Amino acid sequence: MLAAPDDGLSLTIAQIVERLKSSGLHAQLERQARLSLHNPEIKLQSLKEDIKEFLKASGWEKKLHNAVYREISMFPLPCSPSVPPEHIKEPLAYMRKAQANWEKRILKSLNNMCIELGIPLSQKRPLSEQKELLNKWNEMGTDEPDLSLFRPVYAPKDFLEVLMNLRNPNYDTSELSNFRNHLGLIQVPLNVRDIHELKEYFSELDLNTGQMDIDDSAHVPAELFESEHVRLGQKVLMEQDSAAAQQYVRQGSPNSLRAELWALILNISSQPEDILYYEQLKSNVIQYNLLVDSLIYKDVKLTASNDDYYFVFEDYLYQVLLCFSRDTSVLEHFAYNSATPPRSFIRGKLGMEQYAVFYPPNGVIPFHGFSMYVAPLCFLYNEPSKLYQIFREIYVRYFFRLHSISSHSSGIVSLCLLFENLLQSRLPQLFYHLREIGAQPLRISFKWMVRAFSGYLATDQLLFLWDRILGYNTLEILAVLAAAVFAFRAGNLMEVTSLAAAEAVLADLSTLKVMPLLQIFLFATDSSSLSKGTGATLLGFSTGASNPVYQLAAFELIFLSDVRCAALGVDSLSLALIRFSPFLWGFL
């Protein structure tokens, strides 16, 4: 059960402090505090306060704020100490059982491959092979190993079959009148948002709010909005505030600022120790050959190497994914992941717990399409160590939920249920038609959501979509977009008579624009969303809450310093209006 409010706050603080103590930031703060003792302005009588002021003035307080914000964003709400750890990972017993059974299937597939091919799970490379790999580290894409005998451990369609068979043994829909007959493939009762809750949660996406990737604003020319948005983005980067950056990207990131904004949101900064850690992972790859290395090679060859956008990044993908497989720090995310990292035993020590090791070292077995989580990031980061850090952080925050069974609102089960509910409620005729011809919509959209649309959308549109994932800190936008795609192609889909024909209609998503689809699906039928602002003017524009420039000013006033607020020349009346703008209700 959840702890009482006061106890919960105390537990949260205690957990965050404990995690930060084991972080590199804690060591850096201690080092800076010791160095400050040589500062003549530090007095013995006010030592504690002087050191605090020194750290604040030198920017370390902001870094601490960002680290705390990261912890709050990632980890679940604290529970009573009496709650077992497995309940924190996943509160529903039948979900835990389903995940455990799925893991057994994956391990069986991996072990069978190991036995059939006569290849050990891990072995040290000969010195000659180590030298060869080191020399071609930046040209691994030119290698053509024989991978014909290797096969992906599983594909998204295999995972979907498992989710389709999920059932809550304590829930009988035939006896409960408040659970309407669900015609989709997902038959478990989970609490997902309805269309009204989605409109409220994604309110900044409405038709009257300016977006970076929409050219036709009714209030202000696109060029002006873009220049104002870029200007504000530069100020957000100057402030180095993760929370402000996260709010900012809800309206999309300018291409020139996206890499820095995402790094700020994810609290990633390339320190010398981070680069050294990456080099240690690289050294481990050079020394040891794992069976999963061949699975990674195979996946890259089958997916990214055949993609018109991503084939040029083949070398980067090998470097990042091979290092990722060796990174034991990834194991930390299993504290809030319903999955359990697989274990193996040192040869000759089978069954002896003291010789058990996690395999692969990061606990993540790659599946078909896994490399597509990394590929889009190659457009933003050309430094391998920075690219690696960004991918690892996005994975342990978001993408692990796309291939594990859980009841989390961003988990793949909830996303599938949300997608089916949206189609049934918004497009019931289309849903029923596709169901009747044997073309269940989820069978088509599942692969999109599992890959977070990577490899399906044009890269610029995909990055705009991932802006919103980071900005709203949820994967629910994937289900909304999947439903919006079906709505956009509804006319053609109503004419198909088979699953193959439906798949053909939805085979190419590369020409779609993400934001117009999302806006129309969520808000086009709501007449109140189309209302225009009226009244006085702010900086020469309407003060209506829907005005993009007005919203930029509102955002700026809330998140940036008082000096910059004054620089805008906004009077107290306008400030009062801004504070009550619907755009900011979620933050006041």
Labels describing this entry:
single chain; 588 residues; two-stranded antiparallel ribbon; globular
Describe it:
- This protein has 588 residues and is mostly helical.
- Helices cover 52% and strands 3% of the residues.
- The protein contains 27 helices and 6 strands.
- It has helices spanning 5-21, 24-36, 47-57, 60-74, 85-89, 93-117, 127-135, 156-164, 195-201, 222-239, 242-248, 258-265, 272-287, 291-302, 314-326, 384-397, 412-426, 428-436, 441-450, 459-472, 476-488, 490-493, 499-505, 514-523, 548-559, 562-567, 572-579; strands at residues 122-124, 288-290, 343-345, 356-358, 537-538, 541-542.
- The strands form 3 sheets. Strands 1-2 form a two-stranded antiparallel sheet. Strands 3-4 form a two-stranded antiparallel sheet.
- A hairpin with a 2-residue loop joins strand 5 and strand 6.
- The longest helix is centred in the N-terminal third of the chain and has 25 residues, at 93-117.
- It is globular.
- It starts with a helix and ends in a 9-residue tail after the last helix.
- Residues 1-5, 176-180 and 526-588 have low confidence and may be disordered.
Summarize the structure.
The chain has 588 residues and is an all-alpha fold. The protein has helices at residues 5-21, 24-36, 47-57, 60-74, 85-89, 93-117, 127-135, 156-164, 195-201, 222-239, 242-248, 258-265, 272-287, 291-302, 314-326, 384-397, 412-426, 428-436, 441-450, 459-472, 476-488, 490-493, 499-505, 514-523, 548-559, 562-567, 572-579, and strands spanning 122-124, 288-290, 343-345, 356-358, 537-538, 541-542.
